[in-house]
Amino acid sequence: IANPDGTGLQAIESLGSKDDDVLINWSPSNQTAALYRESTDATGAKVYFIGLHGENFKALTIDGRDLRAIWSPTGDRLLYSSFSFNSNYNPSLWAANAEGDQIGTRRINFKLATWADKCSFANNTIAYCAVPKNLDSGAGYFPELADNSPDVIYKLNLDTGAKTKVAEPVGAFSISNLMVSNDEKILYFTDKKTGQIYKIDL
């Protein structure tokens, strides 16, 4: 870790040969700097939270590989995706508590085949996600397969586990860079095919 101007450089964890399994992902609560995924068997893995001061945090058990994750605004929840044989090698979207002694509790499987980086939080409870309408088996290995499928927008409630389809954009958009306005009335996104920015009134 370091200050924005490069001063105060400090090593916080030795990665050895495991750097490919570390996801740099700073939490809004400043508790976690990175996530480390370690396989436990053919389909399962544990995610370890790397803190700034050598903390020994609890691990989060996930199903599969290709961990992608975004933090809730306060940093106490994690919306993440991974894939395995159990999900037909397609991404599967989950949420779980991700702070202190609560790490790994309240796991929710939204049963949506999409990646966490196609999602955006509106507040600490509500998130919006772009979900491909059709995914061929194996899209977890080849995410570019999703570029040929139009996306629909789902609203997720991380407290109740509820999911609601809220929009199906007119046009075959492959959505990236999803973002919710501060008043939570407009959803912005980029179409990967054209690079153009669009908006949806919520």
Q: Mean pLDDT score, rounded?
A: 93
> Helix amount, in percent?
under 10%
Note the main sheet. 4 strands, antiparallel
The fraction of residues assigned to DSSP E strands is 35-45%
| Overall 3D shape | globular
Q: Tell how many strands the DSSP assignment holds.
A: 15
The low-pLDDT segments are none
**Quaternary:** single chain
Total of helices:
0
Strand line-up in the sheet with most strands? 1-2-3-4
Rg calc: 17 Å
Report how far the terminal alpha carbons are from each other. 38 Å
Structural class by helix and strand composition: mainly beta
> SSE order in H/E notation?
EEEEEEEEEEEEEEE
Q: How is this structure best described in words?
A:
With 202 residues, the chain is mostly beta strands. The chain is 0% helix and 42% strand. The chain has a four-stranded antiparallel sheet, with no helix packed on it. A four-stranded antiparallel sheet has the order 5-6-7-8, with no helix packed on it. A hairpin with a 5-residue loop joins strand 5 and strand 6. The mean pLDDT is 93.
